[in-house]
């Protein structure tokens, strides 16, 4: 363990961690085989993913309803934000790129609301509708650039929300 | 360096992410890579408890891990001189890939940032990069962590440096999201000589 330095000169020292030592050992799975194996693991999870997605969307809708009842409820806003981040973080990995796009956009709306943008039910509803579209065939296998009208529209909504938050902040 | 092989068997890998599904996916990827000792936590309190009770070989930590956030936790781990895990590699996972965020992660002492959503390829290559890149540690009154000024000879997986990597300008605003290659560049190219 390095001593804490007591002067302004940086103490620079080599570190060879156990991770580095062991990860370099011979006998590991080759890169291509490892990636292929990991991809197979993900493929095997895809059958349950839609069920998980439906549960998460239901939870998100519940959080939004709570937010609708009490528009200053930061706990409900945080809960919706966390649920949305969860969807954003896994959508593309599981092959649902549009889910990640819509979730990322919705996080932008919720960020704007946290920053002072007024609550706007229509902005929220259009994202909930977009989620429902993004989970169904054939949209669930599409990329955002394959549905330009939808992506442009949702991006515009975020721009409006962000602009509104910026005005409130002044 | 081209297509290096890493051996994750018997390495203790800790995944810290608030989403159980992200933890499950990351765990599955690591098992696919050959890892057999993977732990999971969902909050910083569980993370700190785990770190105080056992030696961890590498930490995969979400940048917004509640309640403190991954950057604060990274800084806390690096600054605690009594922590046996003080120098362990930390791979921050973040869906916020704006340049200011990536720089903050680097300045907190993270070894690398991986953009979410993750792919097996991106995760494998970042782990290989950490395994095969020799970086000194720097200890100053204001920073403890991997040397932020280092020269990299090449990325794992045959990914090369880009032409403009020599000088990195510091942005004033948060700016747009960066692609994984740009994130890698911010962790690699300050010292070019």
CATH class wording of chain A: Mainly Alpha
Could you tell me the mean pLDDT of chain B? Answer: 85
User: Helix- and strand-based class of chain A?
Assistant: mainly alpha
**What is the name of the CATH architecture of chain B?**
3-Layer(aba) Sandwich
CATH architecture of chain A: Up-down Bundle
From the N-terminal CA to the C-terminal CA of chain B, the straight-line distance is 19 Å
Share of helix among residues of chain A? 55-70%
Look at the structure and give the mean pLDDT of chain A: 91
Helix content of chain B: 25-40%
Order of helices and strands of chain A: EHHHHHH
> How many helices of chain B in DSSP terms?
6
Would you state the CATH class of chain B? Answer: Alpha Beta
The structural domain count of chain B equals 1
Q: How are the strands of the biggest sheet of chain B laid out side by side?
A: 2-1-3-4-5
| Tally of distinct domains of chain A | 1
Secondary structure layout plus pairing:
The complex is a heterodimer of chains A (170) and B (193).
Chain A: E1 11-14, H1 18-23, H2 31-69, H3 74-91, H4 97-114, H5 121-134, H6 148-169
Helix pairs in contact in A: 2-3, 2-5, 3-4, 4-5, 4-6, 5-6
Chain B: E1 12-16, H1 20-32, E2 37-41, H2 44-53, E3 58-62, H3 70-79, E4 90-94, H4 99-108, E5 112-115, H5 120-132, E6 136-139, E7 144-146, H6 180-186
Parallel strand pairs in B: 1-2, 1-3, 3-4, 4-5
Antiparallel strand pairs in B: 6-7
């Amino acid at each position: 363990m390095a001593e804490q330095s007591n002067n302004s000169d940086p103490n620079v020292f080599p570190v060879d961690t156990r991770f580095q030592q062991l990860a370099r050992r011979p006998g590991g799975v080759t890169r291509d085989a490892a990636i292929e194996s990991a991809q197979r693991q993900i493929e095997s999870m895809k059958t349950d993913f839609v069920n998980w997605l439906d549960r998460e969307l239901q939870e998100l809708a519940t959080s939004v309803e709570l937010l609708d009842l009490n528009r200053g409820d930061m706990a409900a806003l945080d809960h919706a934000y966390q649920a949305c981040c969860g969807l954003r973080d896994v959508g593309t990995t599981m092959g649902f790129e549009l889910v990640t796009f819509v979730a990322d956009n919705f996080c932008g709306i919720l960020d704007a609301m946290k920053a002072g943008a007024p609550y706007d039910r229509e902005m929220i509803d259009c994202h909930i509708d977009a989620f429902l579209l993004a989970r169904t065939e054939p949209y669930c296998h599409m990329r955002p650039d394959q549905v330009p009208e939808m992506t442009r529209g949702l991006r515009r909504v975020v721009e409006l929300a962000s602009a509104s938050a910026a005005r409130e902040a002044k | 360096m081209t297509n290096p092989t890493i051996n994750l068997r018997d390495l203790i890998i800790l995944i810290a992410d608030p989403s159980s599904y992200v933890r499950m996916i990351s765990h599955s990827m690591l098992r696919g890579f050959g890892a057999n000792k993977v732990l999971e936590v969902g909050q910083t309190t569980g993370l700190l408890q785990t770190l105080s009770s056992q030696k961890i070989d590498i930490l995969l930590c979400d940048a917004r891990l509640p309640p403190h956030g991954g950057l604060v936790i990274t800084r806390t781990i690096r600054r605690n001189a009594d922590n046996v895990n003080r120098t362990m590699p930390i791979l921050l996972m973040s869906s916020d890939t704006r340049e200011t965020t990536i720089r903050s992660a680097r300045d907190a002492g993270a070894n690398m940032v991986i953009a979410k959503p993750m792919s097996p390829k991106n995760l494998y290559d970042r782990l290989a990069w950490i395994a095969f890149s020799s970086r000194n540690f720097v200890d100053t009154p204001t920073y403890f962590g991997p040397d932020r000024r280092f020269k990299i000879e090449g990325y794992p997986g045959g990914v090369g440096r880009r032409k403009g990597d020599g000088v990195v300008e510091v942005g004033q605003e948060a700016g747009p999201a960066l692609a994984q290659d740009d994130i890698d560049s911010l962790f690699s190219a300050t010292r070019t000589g």
